[in-house]
Amino acid sequence: MAEVLVYVDHVDGAVRKPTLELLTLARRIGEPVAVALGNGAEATAATLGEHGAVRVLTADAPEFADYLVVPKVDALQAAVEAVSPAAVLVPSSAEGKEIAARLAVRIGSGIITDAVDLEASDEGPVATQSVFAASFTTKSRVSKGTPVITVKPNSAAVEAAPAAGAVEQLAVSFSEKATGTKVTARTARESTGRPELTEAAIVVSGGRGVNGAENFAIIEALADSLGAAVGASRAAVDAGWYPHSNQVGQTGKSVSPQLYIASGISGAIQHRAGMQTSKTIVAINKDAEAPIFDLVDYGVVGDLFEVVPQLTEEIKTR
Ligand code: FAD
C-alpha cells in the first residue's frame, strides 16, 4: 500500500488534534507516515503510533525552533524525496497552508487547500472542498506531481488504530532561505483557557444582536459551560465588542465544528462562508425571518438575553 505523509502539528511533543484527524483520513488513501519536527518530535511517536502512523520521521535542529516555515519545508521536501508518498497531508492552519504552498512549489506539485474530506480513487486521492462561500461542494484531484492537500480541522472524527509508530531519523539539509529570516521578538497572547477557534469541537458566536462588549459575557458563559470557543460576526468585531482574531466568516476564520451556536447573527453570506460546514448549526434570533434559519438544524426564535442564560443554566445542571 502506498505511503501518505502526514505533517505533525505539535507543541513540544504534544500532538494537536487536527493531526490525529489527518491520520484518520490518511488511512483511507494509504499507510500514514508522520513527519514530526523540532523540540519533542520523538515524544510524539507514541500518540502517532496509536492513531495509525506506521513510521514517524523525526528531525530536530535549532532551525526549527522559531516557528519559521522554510526549515519545515526543507524537511518535508527531504521526506517526500525519501518516501515518494502518494500524497502529503498538512493541517489547514495559517502555518500549515504556508508550508503546504511552499512545498508544492518546491516539488512541482499541485495543491488542494481546505479539504473537508478525502477518499481514494484509482487516479489518486480525491478531496472534497466547500467553495464560493460554501454554496457548492467540489471534488478535486491533483493531476501533477505528488498531491499536497491541506485539511480543515474537525473534518474527521479521530479514530484510534494501533500501528508500529517506529521512529526514524530524517536527514535534512537546510536551504539558504531557511536562515534568511529571524524572529526578533515574541509576545504571548493572554490565554482565555478556551480552545482555539478553528480547532474547537463547539463554537458559540455572538453578533450585532449581542448589543455591546459587556454583553459578550453571556456568550462566553454559554461557551464555557460547553467547553467551547467564542466566535463573533464582523458586525460585532467592527463595533469593537470582540477581537478580530475571533471573527468567523469570509474575512475572518473558517470553522467547521461539530456544533455551531449563532446568537444574534442574521446569517449574511459572508458569515456563512466561515461556518456553513459545521456539522450541527443552532441559531438563536428574535427575528423568525432571519436568513440564518435557512441553514440551521435547530432554531430558537427568541431574545438571546433570555434564551442564552437559560441554556447555560440548563447545561450546567447536566
Ligand atoms: P446583523 O446582520 O445586523 O444581524 C443581527 C441579528 O441579530 C438580526 O438578525 C437580529 O434579528 C438579531 N437580534 C437582534 N437583537 C437580538 C436579540 N436580543 N436576541 C436575538 N436576536 C437578536 N460578516 C461576518 O460575520 N464575517 C465576515 O468575515 C464578513 N466578511 C465580510 C466581507 C465583506 C467583503 C463584506 C462586504 C461583508 C462581510 N461581512 C462579514 C459582513 C456581513 O455582510 C454582515 O454585515 C455581518 O455578518 C452582519 O453581522 P450580524 O449578523 O452580527 O449583524
TrEMBL record:
<feature type="binding site">
    <location>
        <begin position="247"/>
        <end position="251"/>
    </location>
    <ligand>
        <name>FAD</name>
    </ligand>
</feature>
<keyword id="KW-0285">Flavoprotein</keyword>
<comment type="subunit">
    <text>Heterodimer of an alpha and a beta subunit.</text>
</comment>
<dbReference type="InterPro" id="IPR014729">
    <property type="entry name" value="Rossmann-like_a/b/a_fold"/>
</dbReference>
<dbReference type="GO" id="GO:0009055">
    <property type="term" value="F:electron transfer activity"/>
</dbReference>
<dbReference type="GO" id="GO:0033539">
    <property type="term" value="P:fatty acid beta-oxidation using acyl-CoA dehydrogenase"/>
</dbReference>
<keyword id="KW-0249">Electron transport</keyword>
<dbReference type="InterPro" id="IPR029035">
    <property type="entry name" value="DHS-like_NAD/FAD-binding_dom"/>
</dbReference>
<feature type="domain" description="Electron transfer flavoprotein alpha/beta-subunit N-terminal">
    <location>
        <begin position="4"/>
        <end position="183"/>
    </location>
</feature>
<dbReference type="InterPro" id="IPR001308">
    <property type="entry name" value="ETF_a/FixB"/>
</dbReference>
<dbReference type="Pfam" id="PF00766">
    <property type="entry name" value="ETF_alpha"/>
</dbReference>
<feature type="binding site">
    <location>
        <begin position="233"/>
        <end position="234"/>
    </location>
    <ligand>
        <name>FAD</name>
    </ligand>
</feature>
<keyword id="KW-0813">Transport</keyword>
<protein>
    <submittedName>
        <fullName>Acryloyl-CoA reductase electron transfer subunit beta</fullName>
    </submittedName>
</protein>
<dbReference type="InterPro" id="IPR014731">
    <property type="entry name" value="ETF_asu_C"/>
</dbReference>
<feature type="binding site">
    <location>
        <position position="208"/>
    </location>
    <ligand>
        <name>FAD</name>
    </ligand>
</feature>
<dbReference type="InterPro" id="IPR033947">
    <property type="entry name" value="ETF_alpha_N"/>
</dbReference>
<dbReference type="GO" id="GO:0050660">
    <property type="term" value="F:flavin adenine dinucleotide binding"/>
</dbReference>
<comment type="function">
    <text>The electron transfer flavoprotein serves as a specific electron acceptor for other dehydrogenases. It transfers the electrons to the main respiratory chain via ETF-ubiquinone oxidoreductase (ETF dehydrogenase).</text>
</comment>
<dbReference type="Pfam" id="PF01012">
    <property type="entry name" value="ETF"/>
</dbReference>
<dbReference type="InterPro" id="IPR018206">
    <property type="entry name" value="ETF_asu_C_CS"/>
</dbReference>
<feature type="binding site">
    <location>
        <begin position="264"/>
        <end position="271"/>
    </location>
    <ligand>
        <name>FAD</name>
    </ligand>
</feature>
<feature type="binding site">
    <location>
        <position position="285"/>
    </location>
    <ligand>
        <name>FAD</name>
    </ligand>
</feature>
<comment type="similarity">
    <text>Belongs to the ETF alpha-subunit/FixB family.</text>
</comment>
<dbReference type="InterPro" id="IPR014730">
    <property type="entry name" value="ETF_a/b_N"/>
</dbReference>
<keyword id="KW-0274">FAD</keyword>
